[in-house]
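Following up on my earlier message about threonylcarbamoyladenylate. Here are the inputs again, as you asked, copied directly from the submission form:
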Amino acid sequence: METILLSDNEEQLSIAAGLIRKGEIVGIPTETVYGLGADASNEEAVKKVFAAKGRPADNPLIVHLADFSQAQEYTVSIPDLAWKLAERFCPGPLTMVLPKNEKIPMITSGGLDTVGIRVPSHPVMHRIIELSGRPIAAPSANTSGYPSPTSAEHVMRDMNGKIAAVVDGGASEFGVESTVISIESEDRVRILRPGCVTREMLLELCGEVIIDHAILHELEAGQKAASPGMKYKHYSPKADIIMVEGSLRDFTEYAGRNMTSGTYCLIFDGDEEDFPYRYLTYGRNSSEQAHWLFQRLRELDDIGAEKVYVRAPSPEGVGLAVYNRLIRAAGFEVIRI
Ligand code: TXA
Ligand code: MG
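Thanks, got it. Here's what our run produced:
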């Protein structure tokens, strides 16, 4: 199949929406990362998404809606707390796991009786949902296991020949995927995947915000995942990623002792003065690091890095999302100095 590249004008967005209505798959920009969009209510279309990504069938897809009130059409019930959170954070990078009804096929929810609902703020994704008139299931548009795409070019690299089209809407603003939460009571939520809606932001509306253990720790054999995505290796470039926690000086010394010909470092902006080894930088603060991380992981593969020492980010605020993606990319290999 030939994958066409569409721009983000109204006429091209109608083409994209038409393809979705016909059961085709389209790469679509969102404010977090690019998604592989399909009609969430069309089982054949959803099957194609799993095939294009090489995604395990038990890993559910998030359903994207134009407005949170539409969630009533696809769920059994919506807790008051979800409405309150929606008022503050929708549209935006928040996904709420809610009990689904029969309008969401089991294949979309990976066999679960819940569905992740998200209302994206990106005008292109928003418009395609409106024009198609369908709920849009969209996982990140990467090959399963590889870093998520933050540009149309990344999507083309992973999906060329496997999907009908990609819409180019420029670089993704946030750069990491949405925060995924489940609602445990009218006052308590659990973060299943950290993102740019942070624990601190959620605490303004919830009495208790639990960070699921699997966000920073490897699941033990036989342990049940609160979210199926936690079970799988993720965000990994071809290069071997090793996180190193410590001061710049400790980091530099450690890297120096372990450098080989294929080794690179991924350090903070501001660290580079006199830095003696081959490096890329990924930002100065957590928001910049979120924005650049996946782009840099892909670039490291492009330049042929075999091993990468990454200066570990602060796990505070948005940094928790960056730390979570990196520790998974590193297969939980962290050097603490
Ligand atoms: O920002 C995002 O969320 C992007 C853009 C495209 O919207 N999408 C995205 O989808 O990251 P995906 O499929 O790559 O990641 C969805 C994550 C997976 O880890 C999945 O296991 C979890 O959300 N998830 C989805 N539905 C769930 C459910 N019903 N219960 C628990 N976890 C769920
Ligand atoms: Mg993904």
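One observation from looking it over: The chain has two domains: 4-215, 240-336. Hope that helps, and feel free to reply on this thread.
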